[in-house]
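QUALITY CONTROL LOG
STEP: pairwise intake check
CHECKER ROLE: data steward
CRITERIA: each record must contain a sequence immediately followed by its structure tokens, with no blank fields

ENTRY 1 OF 2
RESULT FIELD BELOW
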Amino acid sequence: MAFQTRRVQKSLDNKQVCGGLDTLTRVGAFLVLASGLAVGGCGANGHGGYTTEHISAAKEKMNIMKSATEWEMAHQAFLAGELDKALKGVDRSLAINDNVAKSHVLKGRILMERGELEGAIDSFNKAATLDPTFVDAPYYLGIAFERINRREQSLAAYQKAAEIEPSNAQYAIATSEMMIDLGKIDEAETYLNERSGSFENNAGVRQTLGHIAMMRSDSAKAVAIFNEARLLAPDDNAILEDLARAQVASSQFADAESNLSRLLKSPDTKERRDLQHLRARCLIEVDRKLDAREALIALTQGQAGAADTEAWVQLGNLSYVLKDATRVRQCAARVIAMAPERPDGYVLRGLQLRRDAKFGDALAAFEKAMALGAKSDVLILKGMALKDLNRTDEARAVFAQALQTNPQDPAAAAMLTQVDEQN
């Protein structure tokens, strides 16, 4: 352009020196100059449009990066339990870009952990609207509804998640467990069995089917199913615990004790007192009474043990069987002191007093237990104390009352027959 302008100027100068150019020459020079300006002008306009578009794209890309960075920082804060920091971070991410489903899900999860469940539900619904295929939205919506006991809505949300990702067992399990909570046990079983082809090797599905069997009091079937789940997930302590409890329910005490011993060696479950209680019961059932006594003594130690009434009751009962009179008395006194409203301590006291041939005191202890709500088994003990005191007619009446209370009690029938024969 500069070269063309200089060239036109040079022609004008020649005209002045040489006496002028003809008209055609002057018109040509003007057209050359105008053409150059037009080309330059068009170039400038095209370049300006491209630059604006490029700047907008770069700005959008930068916003996406900023939003993603804020989301990642918020997510890390959430995982660390820093909920206030996480909420501020995800709000910044949404302020930059409000159309990202996973950002709304993260906000919903944060709000849910803060106990703001209605706000969480709004966030999950927003995410589902933005991206109906984003499975986290209905899944966490189901959890939120479950927490506020809106179980039908929770079930619908879980079912939606399972529809979005039918090959993911997590969502099918959540759906079936909510069906169970709603009392739809048959429907839950059918739902899982219909998907058995997809989840044939999934331990969680087998575990849920085992729970259904336990709810139907089919402990033998539950043991078989939990064993299958155990083979699929040999390191899952939750499945091992389910198996042990099913084995106890089906009177497979030796196998249950073995599995409970394994659980109690795990760092995650070794302090579980309920499992220790269950193992002590298994030890008694397999006639390892001395081992059971040691387990129960351990359960009565320390601050937690001092307040564990059930452990003291069981230790007292076992000590009576082992004829450990001193420990029976100790346990009876402890139980009466800790739980004076329970009949157990007075029953223990009465048992030992009767063994000590203190029949009147034993009768008083059993009567106290009856006043606190003891059942037919203590009626029989009361009748035996009356019989010891040669109060035969009263004993017979008590045995008859026990048999009437529990017609299937063989002990009551036997004692009643014995009294009748002696008369």
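ENTRY 2 OF 2
RESULT FIELD BELOW
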Amino acid sequence: MTDISAAPGRWRVLHYSHHSTGLGHLVRSLAIAGAVAERSDVLFCSGGRVPAGLAIPPGVELVTLPPVGTDEHGELCSLDPEYSLNQAWDGRRQQLLEHFDRFDPDAVVVELFPFGRRKFAAEFIALLERARQGRRRVVVSSVRDLLVDAHPDKQQHDDGAAERLDTYFDAVIVHGDPRFARLEETFRPSRSPTVPVFYSGFVAPPSPVAPLDRRAAQILVSAGGGLIGGRLLAVAVEAHRSILGPMGATTRVVSGPFLPPDYYAGLVERSRSVEGLTIERFVPDLASAMAESAVSVSQCGYNTSIDLLRSGVPAVVVPYDEDRETEQWARACRLESLGAVRLLPAARLSPETLAASVLDAVASTTRAVRLDLGGAATTAALLASLMPASMTAVA
């Protein structure tokens, strides 16, 4: 960890992000932190596991709290064997507040809360209460394009989130293009909050994907962080073994760093004697890997979707839709209506249907979709604009 000191004429921004299941929230938040760091000093507090090989932007000090995530049953657990879950909760809250006091930020950015992260509310509220003490600070909620829209107590949840927005926050920044989705489509409180809502555009990695010659027969299969992608990966391996491989295709499977080790070992074992099939844990630049492939097979998380749009690769998406998770399904439906992907529902997923969808994608023309992908830089500019004139940057 590199401890940065505030440079003359720069703001200090604390960005708190947590990811429990996949990598999407972490990757998006780090891209935003990197853009903010061009004009501010950034302390980035991560509440989930940070995989090896993930680049930390220059000028960003990374603090990792005792990680809490979900197990194979979807239950919260401590991801560090040295901590029980209760010990992890206590340690996280204490460390978060200690780092806040040390850094003394001018602005606080929290990711997804209060729209989500209900199980983490205690530590978010502790941070927000600390931010209200002493001098004036700007507090912003950073949220993706679409929210989960199938909670059984959705109305009560949205009403509570609206109340917390007005109590603790100065603004909401939605990291999406309003032409694609608007916040009010998945956030419908009985009373609209008074805090302003801004749209930044989608947050894409800082460097564009260079045009590459596609490998005519390569199929790229990915599953984000991997924790909830095991079934898709296993079906893709079988589709290659029984159908696509004998047709001359090659399949590159990227499992994701959070796929359970035993499951990953099983995929590797099943690939040993299969020609044209490779299994990898992690690819730092998935968009470039997509750009050099004939077709991409994936779920439909936020970052994967942006990579699909940037690369222009023909794509088959199998959105995760279990446990009332509607976000990926809604995004996939919108992208399919724009002609950017081919949607294969998880309920219909099999080696045969996946192979058929891949062949259809290769034979079809993918329609270019023009959406605002400049969200990182726009977020940095929005955050600077929210700083009141009376709040002078550190000199």
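INTAKE CHECK: passed for both entries
DESCRIPTIVE NOTE, ENTRY 2: The longest strand covers residues 11-17.
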